[in-house]
Every structure is written in C-alpha cells, then in structure tokens.
Design brief:
alpha+beta, 5 helices, 40% helix
Length: 169
C-alpha cells in the first residue's frame, strides 16, 4: 500500500470491537510516532496507555457522558507534548507531537486497526490530567482510541485541493 492509499484509507472510527491492542503492536505504533520530524530532536511526544484503574479515574473525572465515550474503544492512549517553557520551541514540539500522532494513526490503519483521535474536555481539567498521569509541563493533544473495527465508516467528502492551496509569485 502506498502512503497515499494508506492516508486515503484512514478513517475516524467510533465503533470498535472488544479486543484490546497487543502491547507489542502498541510499541510498534509508538516507534512509528518517534519518526516524526522534531526541531532540535527534542522528541517531545509522550504516549500513556490507560489501564483499568487510570481509565476508571478518568471516567469519574469526566462524568457519565464522557464515560460512555471512553468505553468506545478497548485501548486508549493519551498523547501529550513535553514543554520546555520556551514559546517557540513549545510551538514546534506541539506540532511535532501532532505529526507523531498522525504516524500512529497511519500505522494503526496499516495494521487493520480502527482509530479515533479526539480531544475530550476532561483532559483539559486538573482532575482529568491527574487521572491520566499527565504532569504539569505537558500539553495534552488528545486521546487516541484504538482497537479492531466494528464497522468501516464511509469516506467523508473532501473539498478540492485547489481551495486550500495558493501558489504565490
């Protein structure tokens, strides 16, 4: 499969099977993430796989409506960027971490896994960050849901590339 085919095949899934993603597969996906470009090789990405206890704490912090969404996938990963306190470096590191997350999503697609990258409000609260083990000095970029697909979502219509591109003189 080419990179273009892989990118076109990637979908946002909201229905997952029950089988958790194997630890070895997760490590392979995170290894892919570490190939993301990063300014000064800071390697700012952090991935936290939530176990049953941390997931229960996060559900409690988020309330019943959030808990229902957290139950969608059998494997949940909090993606965050370690910050330095330097505004420009931190901006670079957040972008690098977003690139790492995309590589994880593409790797999941390549392996036939369903994925969903979302940014739940609970991870923007002190209680949610504590439940997910995110220390002060990191910016949460989102929660990655992973698992086997329960069904394949239809592709979404995308606008023509020309509406997003300018060729400047």
């Amino acid at each position: 499969m080419t990179l273009g085919e892989l990118a076109a095949a990637r979908r946002t899934h909201k229905a997952f099977g029950a089988e958790p993603v194997a630890r070895e597969t997760l490590l392979e996906l995170f290894e892919l993430g570490t190939l993301a470009p990063n300014h000064h090789l800071t390697q700012p990405w952090r991935f936290r796989v939530l176990g049953p206890e941390s997931l229960a704490r996060l559900k409690e912090a988020g309330g019943s409506s959030e808990a229902e969404k957290l139950d969608r996938a059998p494997t949940l990963v909090v993606a965050s960027a370690a910050l330095s306190g330097d505004l420009i470096q931190d901006e670079e590191d957040v972008c690098a971490t977003a690139s790492a997350v995309m590589l994880v999503l593409l790797g999941a697609t390549e392996r036939g896994l369903a994925s969903y990258w979302r940014s739940p409000a609970v991870l923007r609260t002190a209680r949610g960050r504590e439940a997910a083990g995110v220390p002060h000095g990191e910016r949460v970029l989102g929660l990655i849901h992973l698992g086997p697909p329960a069904r394949e979502p239809a592709p979404r219509e995308r606008g023509p590339v020309e509406q997003f591109v300018q060729f400047l003189p």
